[in-house]
Amino acid sequence: MIKTKFVFLLVFIFFNNKILFATEQWVLDNEISTINFEIPLFLAKNVQGKFKDIDGLVEIDLEKKKNNKGIFSVKIESVEINYSKYRNLLLSDVFFNLQKYPIALIDTNKFSYNDEKKVELLVELQIKNKTKAIPVFLEVIRLAEKLVQIKGELYFLRSDFNLGKGKWSSTAVLKDEIKIQISLFLFKK
């Protein structure tokens, strides 16, 4: 809990630094935003899930358009999956290790944005204190003056983050590639 509060405090300080640039902030509406995932299974229905507790924001550099940044987090304990009897296994040290790593992060670092409808970014995905650069293709839909929707998909390998130990590390049945689908709604602050 203290680690979670510390992360959010750092995020708050990071995004409230408006001294150097004129910026605008876009805050995630976590009531209607979704982060879903899917893991293929051999000869069975794929594992499908979603995270219910997500947070994040984007800061846009209005002057140079190059120092934009965004950060999004999910609380691992908020995961829901279609194989509910395996939820505790998923939260255990075999996969996510909830006790040690309660949050996963997506950090955009700095990126350029000039009101494009389609954007390709290289984001940093952090799971279990391991970070990997992952390409993501996003569609930005302006729904109103102060409301945008960001839709996209990204793919990563569970083996890159040690998601699955022992007999669960095999990719013969539970495949290695994980697909994440996002639909994020952001309100201008």
Task: Explain how this protein is built.
With 189 residues, this protein is mainly beta. The chain has a single domain, classed as Lipid/polyisoprenoid-binding, YceI-like (Lipocalin, Beta Barrel). The protein is 10% helix and 47% strand. The chain is built from 2 helices and 11 strands; from the N terminus they run αββββββαβββββ. It has helices at residues 2-15, 87-91, and strands spanning 23-28, 34-39, 47-51, 54-61, 69-75, 79-81, 103-107, 118-127, 130-144, 147-157, 177-188. An 8-stranded antiparallel beta barrel has the order 1-4-5-7-8-9-10-11. The longest helix has 14 residues, at 2-15. It is elongated.
Layout: helices, strands, pairs:
Elements: H1 2-15, E1 23-28, E2 34-39, E3 47-51, E4 54-61, E5 69-75, E6 79-81, H2 87-91, E7 103-107, E8 118-127, E9 130-144, E10 147-157, E11 177-188
Antiparallel strand pairs: 1-4, 1-11, 2-3, 2-11, 3-6, 4-5, 5-7, 7-8, 8-9, 9-10, 10-11
Q: Would you kindly provide a brief summary of this structure?
A:
Helices cover 10% and strands 47% of the residues. With 189 residues, the chain is mainly beta.
Keywords:
Lipocalin; 2 helices; elongated; 189 residues; mainly beta; 8-stranded antiparallel beta barrel
